[in-house]
Amino acid sequence: MGGLSIGQVAERTGLSVHALRFYEREGLLADQVRRESNGRRVYTEDDVEWLDMCIKFRSSGMPLDTIRKYTDLVRQGPGNEADRLALLKSHQDYVSAQIAELNECLNVITWKVGCYQEALDAGQADCLWTAPPARDEKSEAS
What we know:
This protein is mainly alpha-helical. The protein contains 6 helices and 2 strands. It has a two-stranded antiparallel ribbon. The longest helix is centred in the C-terminal third of the chain and has 41 residues, at 81-121.
């Protein structure tokens, strides 16, 4: 029976071997990783797909506890789809709010870039957000 080694899965997912072992130890994989007779882990394509999804969840700010809860629900099988959906919708709302906040940040940065570009093009950039002149020690003592 074929499969993927932990090194191959690390290469495909971008996770370290240590992180893969951590995911397994923390119960974040939908299926238990099969072991060869010598104890080496053997992963399936389904494991890689699941890990890719977990990576996206983590990258989007989903806490490990929430990923674990989702994984537990999936492992339980049919009958809890509404719970899974509620969990995913909640995270979707969180990510949407993050994106909205980042878009606001991007708008400010884009505006500031335009200000600098305009000032540079007009040869007037020397007055943009200059640091105040350093005070000498004599004026500080007064």
